[in-house]
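Readers outside the structure-tokenisation community will struggle with the description of the input data as it stands. I therefore recommend that a typical entry be quoted early in the introduction. An entry of this sort, consisting of the sequence and the corresponding backbone structure tokens, reads as follows:
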Amino acid sequence: MTPVRPPATDIVFAAQALVPATRAERAEIAATLVRAAQAEPGRRVVVKLRSRPGESETHLEREPYQDLLPHRRPQNLVYSYEPMATALETAAGLVTVSSTAAIEATALGVPVIALDSFGVSKSLLNTVFVGSGLLGGRSEVVAGRFRHPHPDWLRDNYFHPEAESTWWERVERLVALRRSGPFPRAVWRLPGAVRCTRPGTGRASSVARTARCGARRRSRSERR
């Protein structure tokens, strides 16, 4: 018997350890999640946390959301320690600042809001979403106005048609070339030239000799 997939109604928030950085900004996100839960009591707002308390992480989380959310929070505002893929199975929308979960959600057809309430910058890691149509503020999260990316942005960010993927053919050609014989190996680098040897001969390749000759010609012309 095929299992019945739960209805996709959750709002999932993908927490990040380092973004945003300040306690005040993270507290604003926590307050936004509370308002979103209060706006629709019949819909779960899932705070997808990176790890359980005490578990080791690559990045130590600044100001955990468990400490910022009120103890007497709405009953439909819940924590989740499940894998992101599991959380997205019941997601009607994903909200984050710049988590890669936004890409994962996009691949699954789950609409997204990438919060720009604190700006768009390299430090927030959200410049990739410029032009995507995903950037939005806290009020849009509360209103549930999640959106799908613009087609042009999708194409520019690896969501292009499979027929346009040529990289695998290039890899196969490189593998075949490697199997036909060893590649020339760089031995040392001289100013203006790269010296290469043919494996087993110790002789410079024609590419290296040409590069050295070119470097000598440039040197002579510069002296003139």
The first helix runs from residue 23 to 39.
